């Protein structure tokens, strides 16, 4: 036992060398346990001092404590140094190379073609003094048919055309029911357009079970068919170009009298019917005209349903029109199939970025 202090010196030398070489905080922690932990020889020595011969206790205890303090000091110093290195290394590794190219820009979305077209149409009519209102898509048979002067056996009421939810409730087949709803809610004069979804049991390249319409209604004193023509001509020119003309052909709708079908002069062939290479124009099929909507003078029978709201057919009259928003978009952008509008294939949609 006489050489315990020398042995302790050996441990100290070995430990100090190892501590000086520790490269990471984890390595240093292992050394702390190995040389100063519970099972370390140094710790064991200090614990068993009482078992030594009395004259040994002083020198061995002193030597062991000196070594213990020395090692603790070295461990603390090395730990501090390592923290410094690790911080430096972290800073070096984390530097941002500002000369690298950035991430590619994220593609920006845009409004759907139908929404763009609806807004464009609304803007045109707002510019002409109309107000935009919307109404329910789940509608009463009363507003969709009865108050619009449809006789009980009108074909549009039949099950194959209309989605009925019950005998009296249906998915509206057009935006026209908002004519009567709006007149019930407001005395004349009234100038409104009504965009929205409508539903019919129909499906092919030009029909889908859901599509969009924009309805127009103007009721005032002294309104004539010429006012209707003027409004639609302004619309056609704003939508399809300043050179356009409109043509009114006689038609039939239960809620207008007289009723008209309205054509716009073809903008693909400048209303010639044939293209520059002499071939027949595909858009107007060689006719120089394209049908865009139905319209007419509001039938006095319709006003008869809202006489209590101030629509006395002896005093006021007006016009109404209805057109397909999707159809207008198809014509304007040359979309060949209505179903493309609702399949939401991104390759189709992104051709109409604004
Ligand atoms: N509601 C008709 C349809 O869906 C379109 C229409 C025609 C609306 C004439 C009108 C109108 O307001 O006057 O086929």
Entry summary:
With 354 residues, the chain is α+β, with helices and mostly antiparallel strands. It has 12 helices and 9 strands. The N and C termini lie far apart (93 Å).
Largest sheet descriptor: 7 strands, mixed
Give the strand order, joined by hyphens, for the main sheet: 1-4-5-9-8-7-6
Q: What is the domain total for the residues?
A: 2
Low-confidence regions: none
* N-to-C span: 93 Å
Can you tell me the overall shape?
Answer: elongated
Q: What level of helicity do the residues show?
A: 40-55%
Ions, cofactors and other ligands present here are: 3,4-dihydroxyphenylalanine
Q: Give a count of the beta strands, DSSP E runs of length 2 or more.
A: 9
- The fraction of residues in strands falls at 15-25%
CATH architecture of the largest domain: 2-Layer Sandwich
Task: Please name the fourth-level CATH homologous superfamily of the largest domain.
Answer: Bira Bifunctional Protein, Domain 2
Order of helices and strands: HHHHHEEHEHEEHEEEHEHHH
Kindly state the mean pLDDT as a whole number? Answer: 93
Q: What is the CATH first-level class name of the largest domain?
A: Alpha Beta
What is the SS-derived class?
alpha+beta
Structure description:
The chain is of the alpha+beta class and 354 residues long. The protein has two domains: 90 residues; 240 residues, BirA Bifunctional Protein, domain 2. The chain contains twelve helices and nine strands. The chain has a seven-stranded mixed β-sheet, with helices on both faces. Strands 2-3 form a two-stranded antiparallel sheet. Strand 6 and strand 7 form a beta hairpin. Helix 5 packs across helix 8 and helix 5 packs across helix 10. The longest helix has 40 residues. It is elongated and about 135 Å long. The model has no long low-confidence stretch (mean pLDDT 93).
């Amino acid at each position: 036992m006489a050489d315990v202090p020398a042995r302790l010196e050996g441990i100290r030398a070995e430990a100090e060398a190892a501590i000086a070489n520790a490269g990471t905080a984890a390595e240093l922690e292992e050394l702390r346990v190995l040389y100063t932990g519970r099972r370390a020889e140094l710790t064991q020595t200090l614990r068993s001092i009482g078992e030594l011969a009395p004259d040994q206790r002083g020198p061995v205890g002193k030597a062991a404590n000196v070594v213990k303090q020395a090692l603790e000091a070295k461990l603390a110093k090395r730990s501090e140094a390592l923290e410094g290195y690790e911080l430096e290394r972290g800073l070096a590794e984390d530097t941002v190379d500002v000369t690298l190219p950035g991430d590619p820009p994220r593609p920006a979305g845009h409004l759907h073609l139908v929404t763009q077209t609806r807004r464009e149409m609304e803007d045109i009519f707002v510019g002409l003094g109309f107000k935009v209102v919307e109404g329910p898509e789940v509608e009463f048979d009363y507003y969709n048919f009865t108050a619009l002067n449809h006789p009980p056996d009108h074909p549009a009421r039949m099950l194959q055309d209309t989605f009925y939810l019950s005998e009296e409730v249906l998915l509206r087949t057009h935006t026209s029911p908002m004519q009567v709803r709006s007149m019930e809610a407001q005395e004349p004069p009234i100038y409104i357009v009504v965009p929205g979804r409508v539903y019919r049991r129909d499906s092919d390249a030009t029909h889908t079970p859901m599509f969009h319409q924009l309805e127009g209604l103007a009721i005032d004193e002294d309104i004539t068919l010429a006012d209707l023509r003027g409004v639609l001509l302004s619309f056609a020119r704003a939508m399809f170009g300043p050179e356009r003309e409109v043509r009114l052909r006689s038609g039939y709708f239960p809620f207008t009298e007289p009723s008209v079908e309205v054509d716009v002069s073809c903008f693909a062939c400048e209303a010639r019917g044939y293209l520059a290479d002499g071939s027949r124009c595909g858009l107007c099929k060689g006719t120089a005209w394209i049908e865009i909507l139905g319209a007419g003078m509001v039938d006095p029978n319709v006003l008869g349903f809202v006489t209590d709201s101030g629509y006395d057919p002896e005093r006021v009259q007006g016009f109404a029109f209805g057109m397909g928003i999707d159809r207008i978009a198809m014509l304007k952008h040359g979309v060949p199939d209505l179903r493309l509008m609702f399949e939401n294939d991104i390759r189709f949609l992104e051709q109409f970025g604004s």
